[in-house]
Amino acid sequence: MKKCIVILAAVFIVYGKANAQEAKPAKQFMQVTTVESVVAGGLGRSRLLITNPDGSQKELDLENLFSLTGINFKNIKQNEDRILQVLKEYTGLGWNLEQVIPLTLSPNDTGSGGIFMTRYLFSKI
Predict the structure, then answer these.
(1) Which of 35, 49, 56, 102 has the largest count of CB atoms under 10 Å?
(2) CA 47/CA 84 separation, integer angstroms
(3) Which of 47, 44, 43, 38 is nearest to 104 (CA)?
(4) Is 62 exposed, middle or buried (0-12, 13-18, 19+ CB in 10 A)?
(5) Separation CA 40–CA 30 (nearest Å)
(6) What is the pTM of this model?
(7) b/e per residue, 20-54, with b = 16+ CB within 10 A?
(8) Nearest alpha carbon to residue 14 among 22, 26, 3, 2
(9) How far lies 5's CA from each of 2, 16, 124, in Å?
(10) CB 111: neighbour CB atoms within 10 A?
(11) Sign of CA dihedral 67, 70, 75, 76
(12) What is the pLDDT of residues 93-122, one digit of tens each?
């Protein structure tokens, strides 16, 4: 009798764990990347890239950090507004911000060029 009870208990435990594992949905990931150009004269290309969980991508324009007269604070403000708008949109859709990774590519030997890049990793269950 004790063997039957132990066997039944083991079956219920294994069955319960199997059902719990099956019911757990897969975690999805999405990445938002900002690439802001540091090329004098406004000649650079700045973009916001969104990589969805299915691998599809969406690209939005950002303003360049520099204009012909130097650093352009109006463009920086516009970029900040656009980036915050996108981050708010995705957190509002239930995405959780997991990690933020800042990257910088410095100017070359002539002192021109460079980018600021930031990656925002989101997850959702």
Answers:
(1) 35
(2) 14
(3) 38
(4) buried
(5) 32
(6) 0.74
(7) eeeeeeeeeebbbbbbbbbbbebebebebebbeee
(8) 22
(9) 5, 16, 41
(10) 9
(11) positive
(12) 999 999 999 998 876 666 667 788 999 999
CA-nearest of 29, 49, 31 to 101 is 31
Maximum C-alpha span of the chain: 89
Any alpha helices (H) in the chain, and if so which ranges? 2-23, 73-92
How confident is the model over 17-42, as pLDDT tens digits?
Answer: 655 556 678 999 999 999 988 777 66
Residue type, 24: K
Strand ranges across the sheet with 46-51:
57-62, 46-51, 28-37, 115-124, 96-105
123, 26, 59, 75 alpha-carbon torsion, rounded to 10° = 0
**CB-CB contact of 35 with 46 (8 Å):** yes
Please name the residue that has the structure tokens 């324009």. 61
